[in-house]
């Protein structure tokens, strides 16, 4: 077993851990980043699949994400806009096909009125929520005791309005059924993007992509850190100083141990309890990590010889709360003349299709795409399903959220350091929650907290 000494050991080479490591080195501290996988990036992964460049994980950048945009600029990375010219498609109940422009779906006027009213009410509530402290809202506890689905039922009897508004947070963001998370958790999701209206606006939330892929962010950060990033190094055990003696922390992998003054656990919160702690973490942390779980979504990539939908005047943007693929977009890669559609199959629908064989699942998913785009959608030249649910070091997608009541009860302690152990991840962010922007934001804040903690010691 090799042994090294560093100021800070960082567990996890995702966007958050690598940002923290970068900031710490800028402050003159020494770091070691221990990464379980054979690559950096975590939930950012740009890969070549059968000749097509695909974003298997995160990809979109929205204009409010100034932490991510700042990092892209610093790294010299360029962005391009998602293709969005033309008309969008909405499938109503029983497959009723309608086209639309703008954000509001082409539903019956009474349903439209309900949707607009719900958006206004949600925007008003979201404006009262501080995404960094949603538990401080005066009604936080009540809002955390009611599921988002039930809350919507208290607001309107219109099922199609409820399904559509529910879809924006449930299927499209937290990737859990709307009965499985609270209204407070839904409000945090919207507050983290600035407003509920922003989440509803695909042109805002899914605005830009990065030339060469978003994984370049972690790749370039890791390149600068050089030998301080250790791949294939899952941390199994963390020994830490619970008595405050100043003895720090030791992170132990299968063949390396790093002794440091501080540790940053930059892993999804659901994975924190997969590490053994000596001594055990305090009871509060042992409890709170059990009240978070990952959402679950399949990101489906279908590449075609041409972006055929554009010839028919379609933008590629398509929605339906009744379809297996509840949302889909033109996701053609910069510089590739072929056309790519990306679609999403979320939570219980994802459970259902994972009971099928791969061939049957593919057929069901392509059939759903064909309901939007016609029979040409049945024959992609490249087809790929991002399945993060089977990834040992992620275990779901997009990110983690609290179960009912968990956010008000435990949220305030999620990032509270325990002795020399700090926590950093997009799933713990306020602004940018569940997004790369949040990962970077929290990474910077965690590094700053450690630098500040070291200052009195004369560094
Ligand atoms: P992340 O999970 O990336 O990193 C944690 C790292 O810790 C991993 O590399 C893991 O291997 C490692 N690790 C875990 N346990 C360990 C152990 N014991 N020892 C050592 N290492 C360990 N966001 C966005 O902004 N725009 C988007 O379009 C999307 N879309 C999207 C699609 C899909 C399919 C996914 C899965 C995710 C997104 N996201 C997204 C979310 C975004 O990708 C995500 O929020 C961030 O990349 C998370 O970065 P973190 O560094 O916080 O965690």
UniProtKB/TrEMBL annotation:
Its EC number is 1.4.3.10. Residues 16-450 form the Amine oxidase domain. One of its GO terms (molecular function) is putrescine oxidase activity. Keywords: Oxidoreductase. InterPro entries: Amino_oxidase (IPR002937), FAD/NAD-bd_sf (IPR036188), Flavin_amine_oxidase (IPR001613), Flavin_MAO (IPR050703). FAD binds at residues 16, 35-36, 235. It is an enzyme of class 1 (oxidoreductase). Its cofactor is FAD. It comes from the Bacteria. It holds the Pfam family Amino_oxidase. Substrate binds at residue 344. Belongs to the flavin monoamine oxidase family. This is Putrescine oxidase.
């Amino acid at each position: 077993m090799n042994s090294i000494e560093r100021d800070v050991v960082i567990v996890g080479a995702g966007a958050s851990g690598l940002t923290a490591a970068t900031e710490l080195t800028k402050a003159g501290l020494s770091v070691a980043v221990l990464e379980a996988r054979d690559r950096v990036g975590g939930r950012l992964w740009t890969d070549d699949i059968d000749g097509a460049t695909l974003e298997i994980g995160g990809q979109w950048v929205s204009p409010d994400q100034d932490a991510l945009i700042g990092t892209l600029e610093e790294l010299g990375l360029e962005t391009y806009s998602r293709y969005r010219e033309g008309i969008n498609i909405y499938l109503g109940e029983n497959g009723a096909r309608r086209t639309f422009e703008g954000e509001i779906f082409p539903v019956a006027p009474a349903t439209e009125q309900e949707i607009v009213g719900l958006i206004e009410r949600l925007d008003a509530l979201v404006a009262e929520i501080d995404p960094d402290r949603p538990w401080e809202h005066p009604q936080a506890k009540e809002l955390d005791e009611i599921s988002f689905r039930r809350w919507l039922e208290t607001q309107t009897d219109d099922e199609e309005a409820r399904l559509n508004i529910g879809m924006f947070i449930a299927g499209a963001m937290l990737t859990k059924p709307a009965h499985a998370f609270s209204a407070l958790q839904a409000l945090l999701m919207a507050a983290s993007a600035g407003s509920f209206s922003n989440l509803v606006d695909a042109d805002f939330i899914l605005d830009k992509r990065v030339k060469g892929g978003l994984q370049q962010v972690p790749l370039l950060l890791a390149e600068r850190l050089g030998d301080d990033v250790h791949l294939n190094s899952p941390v199994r055990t963390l020994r830490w100083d619970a008595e405050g003696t100043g003895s720090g922390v030791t992170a132990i992998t299968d063949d390396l141990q790093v002794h440091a003054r501080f540790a940053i656990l930059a892993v999804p919160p659901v994975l924190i309890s997969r590490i053994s702690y000596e001594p055990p973490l305090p009871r509060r942390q042992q409890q709170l990590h059990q009240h978070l779980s990952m959402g679950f979504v399949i990101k489906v990539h279908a590449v075609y010889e041409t972006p055929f939908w554009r010839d028919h005047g379609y933008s590629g943007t398509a929605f339906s709360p009744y379809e297996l693929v509840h949302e889909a977009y033109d996701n053609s890669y910069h510089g590739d003349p072929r056309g790519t559609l990306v679609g999403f199959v979320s939570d219980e629908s994802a459970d259902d299709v994972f009971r099928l064989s791969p061939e049957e699942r593919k057929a069901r998913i392509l059939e759903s795409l064909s309901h939007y785009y016609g029979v040409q959608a049945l024959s992609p030249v490249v087809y790929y399903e991002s399945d993060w649910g089977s990834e040992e070091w992620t275990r779901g997608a997009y990110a983690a959220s609290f179960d009912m009541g968990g956010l008000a009860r435990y949220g305030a302690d999620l990032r509270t350091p325990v002795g020399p152990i700090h926590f950093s991840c997009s799933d713990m962010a306020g602004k940018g929650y569940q997004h790369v922007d949040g990962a970077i934001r929290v990474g910077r804040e965690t590094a700053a907290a450690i630098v500040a903690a070291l200052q009195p010691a004369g560094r």
